[in-house]
Amino acid sequence: DQYKEDPGKKENIKKLPLKEQMEETMFLGLRMEKGVSRIRFYERFAVDLKEIYENSLNKLEQGGFIKWRGDFLVLTKRGVDVSNQVLAQFLFD
User: Fold this and answer.
1) Is residue 12 one of the residues assigned to a domain?
2) Is residue 66 within 8 Å of residue 56, measured between CB atoms?
3) 60 and 79 in contact (C-beta within 8 Å)?
4) Predicted confidence (pLDDT) per residue in 44-91, tens digit
5) Is 47 among the domain residues?
């Protein structure tokens, strides 16, 4: 009820832990045609996604599920077909 009265009230906004924010960024970004920007990821989290996700990225690239399009990490056609399994590789624990 309190939310209905003032939905913009700061007490109603829950901030996710940093790792969960990174996971959400990967999940939402990879579901978009444009993908996830390596530069924007670094600007937001001060960490290179190629470093923190190195093993997952290598495995998924070798399997043909993801690719780099310039600065952007995107799903390939093959990756789209199994996107839930691909996205699960970006969970921390």
Assistant:
1) no
2) no
3) yes
4) 999 999 999 999 999 999 999 999 999 999 999 999 999 999 999 999
5) yes
Give the range of the structural domain holding residue 70, as residue numbers without chain letter: 17-88
In this structure, the chain runs to a length of 93
Residue 8 within a domain: no
Three-class DSSP labels, the chain: CHHHHCCCCHHHCCCCCHHHHHHHHHHHHHCCCCCEEHHHHHHHHCCCHHHHCHHHHHHHHHCCCEEEECCEEEECHHHHHCHHHHHHCCCCC
Q: Could you tell me the pTM of the whole model?
A: 0.82
